[in-house]
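Q: I'm building a small set of examples for a reading group on sequence design. Run inverse folding on the following structure and report the sequence directly after it, with nothing in between.
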């Protein structure tokens, strides 16, 4: 089976992890701060907080921004459930903004219309989670302008998008948002096995996330309620979690980051071959925006005739041992969110996209032979 995504592990990665195993620290040593510095340097962020997953980082980001009961967080329906769940962990409500039918990212036009309605009827968001679907940056300039006008915070869920650029600058530089979150799950651009990171230009937000990452415990006297009682003394000043990344994960992440730019070039080469190989078929290949450089986490084609035909093509590819997938089932149609009141028809562009989408194999080490097999199979299925 050719998978839709696959990690690339080199001897250098293995050596880096083994070196940690032979060192004094398996957790809370020097590798995690080094990984944080590596990502901060790459993105231009002032602060980086590594976590055991992007899901944890999204939760910390919401907590740091003060999301709680009575608040509402908006996101796109076309994302992994974690982009919405982070608000629910904080006791907040979730609502969705329909997607742009061209880019499949949260639509800034829909966002503005929904904000105008909310201004009158209530339900303004405290935070908007903007997801860079498939690695293609959202319309961040417009979303940021709306955040200033209407007074909400922006979290970028850049789980697909480390290495992507927007208006020539790296995603994560914080120019248009408060916090940006990356995922290092093996299927993403670079991996630490499991792992995530939140980056920000705001020191207070970074401090809040660091505190909550490790139980809400501090050893900083300035933050304690009374003078320390000795070298052992710490205080728990908030209700935090154990969301720490291990030294093994960080060492793998640092080693992988050295190849990030190569990976992106390889992903673009794969996309280019698909664009050409599929250009004569009755399907839509993904558009790439002019003002951005996609990290190309996913290559999603659309089969325009609707769900029935998509299913046939999907099953045909799977039967040919090609591990295609669908990203994503609209979050508002998940039973958990239906129970909160969402229905079919609430976000028609998202539902229409879902009915047509198939994610083709997309990873840096995809061979020409395997990719040709994907292209040839599509030609046969759509003939
Ligand atoms: C993968 C992913 C996440 C969650 O990442 P983990 O590191 O697995 O927790 C969140 N949002 C999006 C859009 C993702 O693709």
């Amino acid at each position: 089976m050719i998978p839709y995504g696959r990690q690339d592990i080199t001897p250098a990665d293995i050596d880096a992890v083994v070196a940690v195993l032979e060192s004094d620290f398996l957790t809370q040593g020097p590798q995690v701060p080094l990984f944080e510095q590596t990502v901060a340097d790459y993105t231009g962020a002032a602060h980086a907080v590594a976590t055991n997953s992007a899901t944890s980082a999204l939760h910390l980001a919401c907590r740091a921004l003060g999301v709680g009961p009575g608040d509402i967080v908006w996101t796109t329906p076309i994302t992994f459930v974690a982009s919405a769940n982070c608000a629910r962990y904080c006791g907040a409500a979730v609502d969705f903004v329909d997607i742009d039918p061209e880019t499949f990212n949260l639509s800034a036009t829909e966002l503005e219309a929904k904000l105008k309605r909310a201004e009158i009827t209530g339900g303004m968001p405290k935070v908007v989670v903007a997801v860079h679907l498939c690695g293609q940056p959202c319309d961040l300039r417009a979303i940021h302008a709306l955040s200033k006008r209407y007074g909400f915070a922006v979290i970028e869920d850049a789980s697909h998008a480390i290495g992507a650029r927007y208006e020539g600058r790296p995603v994560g530089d914080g120019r248009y948002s408060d916090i940006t979150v990356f995922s290092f799950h093996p299927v993403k651009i670079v991996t630490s096995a499991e792992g995530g990171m939140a980056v920000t230009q705001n020191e207070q937000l970074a401090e809040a996330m660091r505190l909550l990452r490790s139980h809400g415990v501090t050893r900083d006297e300035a933050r304690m309620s009374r003078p320390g009682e000795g070298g052992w003394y710490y205080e728990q000043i908030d209700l935090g979690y154990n969301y720490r990344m291990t030294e093994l994960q960080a060492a793998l992440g640092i080693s992988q980051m050295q190849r990030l730019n190569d990976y992106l070039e390889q992903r673009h080469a794969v996309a280019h071959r698909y664009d050409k190989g599929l250009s004569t078929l009755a399907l839509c290949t993904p558009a790439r925006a002019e003002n951005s450089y996609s990290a190309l986490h996913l290559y999603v084609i659309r089969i325009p005739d609707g769900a029935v035909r998509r299913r046939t093509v999907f099953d045909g590819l799977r039967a040919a041992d090609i591990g295609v997938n669908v990203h994503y089932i609209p979050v508002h149609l998940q039973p958990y969110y239906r129970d909160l009141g969402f229905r079919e028809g609430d976000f028609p562009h998202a539902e229409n996209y879902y009915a047509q989408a198939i994610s083709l194999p997309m990873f840096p080490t995809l061979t020409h032979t395997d990719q040709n097999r994907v292209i040839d199979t599509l030609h046969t299925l759509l003939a």
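The chain has two domains: 11-257, 260-381.
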